[in-house]
């Protein structure tokens, strides 16, 4: 029997008089949540700092509540995982920009090491094939300010993004059957991974260099597909599938992350 999927936050230290901590095992799905009784007529679901808050009328039976939770399983799972990831990003941001901090390169966490005597930034591995043993060496003292460390790291990553992304842009442009491709550029938008305009100019977010190669390939294939279809209709997605048949998994991975935050990967890929 497979291990149940757990989506349980620690039980709160204190609860209001109309609240209780509940745990359910629903079809191999373990869920912990705060149940709040209310005079509302329907069941409400909300994610807050304690995890999942379920508001339900006092007359609702346990079976009826379980039915609602099972019906909303996908939303609960997706939303809770996104919330947990945002919290992890906040935590990561507090201790990341320092000696021995970690930053993902092509989906693999590499370590930052600070050495004041170094002449310039250097990388111990192969950028196109990083491993978890690789180090990004920065010419800074261990006591350097976090903002200075971040600035050095991001400047290095942008240079790598320019080279690495260009390889895949040229690959997919060669497969293009739409309007002529004009050029592509690197940018730093907070809300978009990429874009393609009617003039055939493609924009790509430099932060894509943090993701596994398949995600980068998907974004580029997506934008190249817009050279043929400037929409997101069936013909567009057919073009994406032609360029990259196995695009759904990297697309789903990308949707879990915001362009405004550094992505988190729990293990090397």
TrEMBL record:
CDD domains linked: M48_yhfN_like
Domain YgjP-like metallopeptidase: 41-257
Pfam family, one: YgjP-like
Matching Gene3D superfamilies: Metalloproteases ('zincins'), catalytic domain
Protein name: M48 family metallopeptidase
Species this protein is from: Candidatus Paenalcaligenes intestinipullorum
